[in-house]
TrEMBL record:
Listed name of the protein: Putative iron-regulated membrane protein
Source organism per UniProt: Gallaecimonas pentaromativorans
Keywords noted in UniProt: Membrane, Transmembrane, Transmembrane helix
Alphabetical list of InterPro entries matching this protein: PepSY-ass_TM
Bilayer-crossing regions: 12-35, 128-153, 174-202, 327-347, 367-387, 393-412, 424-443, 449-470
Pfam families, per database record: PepSY_TM
Superkingdom field: Bacteria
Amino acid sequence: MSFMRRYWTQVHNWVGVLITPPLAIIFFTGIVLFFHDALYQWEFGRQGQLTLPQAMDQAANRLEQQGILKEGGSLSFYPAEEGGFPLMYYGGKGYQAILADGTVLKDAIRGNAGRTLLNIHDSLSLPMGLYLAGLVAVLMLVLLINGLVVHWPNLKRQFQQYRPDSAKDKWLDLHKLVGIASLPYLLMYAITGAAFCLLVLYQALLLMGPYQGDRSALMNDMGFAQVPQAAKVAAAQLPPSALLAQSQALLGAQPNRLTIGPWKDQNQQVIATSSRGRELVETREIIFTPGAKAPLSDIRQDNMDPSRLIYGAFVALHYGHFGGITLIWLFSALGIACLGMLFGGALRAHGRLPKSGWLYHYNRKSLVLAGSLPLGTLALLLAARYLPMDSPARFWAFPWVFWVVTLLPVLWPMAVGTGRRRVACLWWTGGLFALASLGSIALKQGPELWAWALALVAGTLVLGAGAALLTRRLSPPAS
């Protein structure tokens, strides 16, 4: 091996070991979040007593009575795609929600397991964590390019190579095989993940450059349409239910976002978006005035500005918004395969790192952390489903529930260097418990959660097999 390839190999190994823990967390939570609609139904689904139009009108009346929604303000609704509930809305003072049984949630963002998982996925729930996740995505891109450079001379042979009888080489072969097979998927997530996490930096550069500080113009071009300035001339206000019906007629679909503003003002416009499901950038956005028979603007993929088209394509690729549930199943399977790739690479590194070094202990704890992710996620979802909706714990406990359960096997008893067999058993049985519970959820909540449960089955089988091997390898020799 040449000096340059040896150097690149060392960089690949070191950086790979360092970013495997956050990358495993990001991948796993991302797979779970593919099924966000089913998660919302699991957490917020209640026996229906209100229709969506009734809930929207009640929300507007309540916000006006509380003095939160005033003339000249704006009101945004975010109906869930399945059945319209929970109905999230924003009236200028935090996000609230109305459930189908009329229950009002005063803090629908912090008291939300799906949002908690999204924060963990985006920023690992850390201050400035968004930039850390962006750095991890950039390093992931470096690793992919670096891995291609290292393995390029023997790429074809190594892609076809798998040595199951060699304890030393089978994890390396698995790592390379999955890495090469899923390379387009990995590159897409490295690029789009870095773009989203570091978006604030790009926006700052654009505001200092071509947009000259005009944030509204920048947000409009990126696809976040802004309501017009208030004319301060009073006008009759149609109820949100009527504007919902108008948007449904103009879009030919249920909107997933409806923004009304300025409230009770002559300049009022309504911005409605929906998913079309036939193109890469599925989003269709219309802007119309109340009572009009035609929209003022109708933005689709074929007439979008380039900046919005690129951003929309990144969103569609990253979240799997195009192609329906079949594409989400495919992305979930690829994500589980990539978790196996990370696991294989970490096991291979474990056999080559000096046992006296900090990197060896860091890598060992990373393996346990990756295996405990299903149990932490399950604990979070069960807490979300069964904690009372008005419980103060919903507003502060969710991240702690996830991190305590996930990190517990790492902090005890691995931190003191004993109980390795107990850790692996906890890992394995925790995964089985998670699967059994998720299976019961899927039986009650419909077919979409089956894809999630099946993906977790495949992933946990891989992690369980690795746990057994890790137990055997790390157990101290008999005296």
